[in-house]
Amino acid sequence: MALIIGLTGSIASGKSTVSLMFDDFNIPVVDADKLSREVVMPGENAYNKIVETFSEEVLREDKSIDRKKLGSIIFQDKEKRKQLNAIVHPAVRKKMLEKRDHYVKQGARCVVLDIPLLFESKLTHFVDKTLVVYVDEEVQLQRLIGRDGYSREEAYQRINVQIPVKEKAAMADAVIDNNGSKQESYQQLESLLNEWQVLQ
Ligand SMILES: CC(C)(COP(=O)(O)OP(=O)(O)OC[C@H]1O[C@@H](n2cnc3c(N)ncnc32)[C@H](O)[C@@H]1O)[C@@H](O)C(=O)NCCC(=O)NCCS
Ligand SMILES: Nc1ncnc2c1ncn2[C@@H]1O[C@H](COP(=O)(O)OP(=O)(O)OP(=O)(O)O)[C@@H](O)[C@H]1O
Questions:
Q1: What was the pLDDT predicted at 1?
Q2: CATH architecture label of 3-195
Q3: Average pLDDT for residues 72-97, to the nearest whole number?
Q4: Residue 200: pLDDT above 80?
Q5: DSSP states of 92-159
Q6: Closest residue by CA, ligand 2 atom 7
Q7: 107 alpha carbon to ligand 2 midpoint, in Å?
Q8: Average per-residue pLDDT for the chain
């Protein structure tokens, strides 16, 4: 039986950074953020629904979704966020489960589902173990600003629409403390995978 790990955290806590490390252990990762970009490509159902709901105002000149613009709308309006989630999440879940099952069928010993909203969307039944990538709030804020160039207010807005990462860490089966170097996080991941006996 394959072990399915749900990898989560909060925005800019380091999920993608840790998710890349699984490659070294030949463990496949299904990335919900990546799928959420694929399902809103022009021509897809979710794309059409987004245009219907949010108007052509959220399109770029080439008709693709202007993610920055859509983000600036939904991160400050709970109702609009719910509308977008209702459009995008079902399509992402379907693709995620298809990919999970594909890797399991191929004989993977372990599959990672990288899902930013694992706890918020109550998806823990998709996985056997939950793993949270944790950082202190000030580190999270600085890394988010450093990566995306948001103002402090914009960064807080994005952090505050999710369950605080401290609370997620308290709910998780395991936690990687990503306040230190990437190397330190890598070592924590390696020990955990040994503990969970998924390394060949
Ligand atoms: C609003 C959008 C267009 C902004 O796109 P952008 O490229 O700027 O951000 P990206 O998609 O890379 O998301 C960055 C991070 O924001 C957070 N986030 C994104 N959407 C949401 C949401 N609906 N609620 C809370 N946090 C969210 C996550 O931590 C995610 O990792 C995009 O995030 C989106 O379509 N969101 C709805 C789908 C969703 O919930 N995706 C996240 C999990 S599948
Ligand atoms: N241990 C670390 N030391 C220094 N910088 C780090 C560390 N871990 C991650 N970072 C940097 O912090 C930023 C956020 O990390 P990352 O993109 O992995 O977060 P994320 O949780 O995947 O974010 P999102 O929720 O937006 O997808 C990136 O610029 C990344 O390079």
A1: 83
A2: 3-Layer(aba) Sandwich (3.40)
A3: 97
A4: no
A5: HHHHHHHHHHHHHHTT-SEEEEE-TTTTTTT-GGG-SEEEEEE--HHHHHHHHHHHH---HHHHHHHH
A6: 182
A7: 30
A8: 97
At residue 178, does pLDDT exceed 90? yes
- Of all residues in the chain, the percent with pLDDT exceeding 70 is 100
Alpha-carbon span 185 to 103, nearest angstrom? 25
**Residue bearing the CA closest to ligand 1, atom 5:** 67
Region 126-143: what's the mean pLDDT?
97
Report which ligand 2 atom has the smallest distance to the Cα of 181: 1
Residue 141 CB coordination number (10 Å) = 19
Ligand 2 in reach of 33 Cβ (< 6 A): yes
Query: What is the per-residue pLDDT across 152-166, written as a single tens digit (0 to 9) for each?
Result: 999 999 999 999 999
Looking at the chain, the whole-number percentage of residues with pLDDT higher than 90 is: 98
Other C-beta atoms lying within 10 Å of the C-beta of residue 83: 17
Nearest listed ligand to the Cα of residue 14: 2
- Pocket probe for ligand 2: among 17, 75, 183, the residue whose CB has the most ligand atoms within 8 Å is 17
* Ligand found nearest the CA of 179: 2
Length of the chain: 200
- What residue owns the CA closest to ligand 1's atom 2? 71
Domain positions in the chain = 3-195
